[in-house]
Amino acid sequence: MAMKRIAILLTLCLLSNSVQASDDPSEIYGFWATEDNGRIEIRPCANNVGTLCGIIHDADTDAASLKRNGHVLLEEFIYSGDRSWKKGLIHDPEGGGTYNGKLYLLDKDTVKLKGCAWIFCGSKIWTRIHEEESRMR
């Protein structure tokens, strides 16, 4: 009888873990804080259904921030399952370059952005901005 209870508890634990790690592509939508305190809105692309885009929403009022505000930073990322998006483009608003990119939703509040130019790659970690934090910025 004890073994049966243990088996039931293990099954319930496994089921609860699989529910927590959902595979919903819209789970990434929202506002994200970059490592340098930038603010990016990740949402569906307006001109290409089924793809993901990222728009810069800087709260700073300096000239450089105002110039970047509204700039498309991430474009046409395709959902590839398992909380990841690939074949996207990353546009550098300051240098003007465009790079191949991938996005990974590590958990509900953490995104990893990976960009590559030829064989040289780099990555950044962004943190979700929750509704309360968004109003304070």
TrEMBL record:
InterPro entries: DUF2147. It comes from Candidatus Kaiserbacteria bacterium CG10_big_fil_rev_8_21_14_0_10_47_16. Keywords: Signal. The keyword Acetylation does not apply. This is DUF2147 domain-containing protein. It holds the Pfam family DUF2147. Residues 30-128 form the DUF2147 domain. Residues 1-21 form the signal peptide. It comes from the Bacteria.
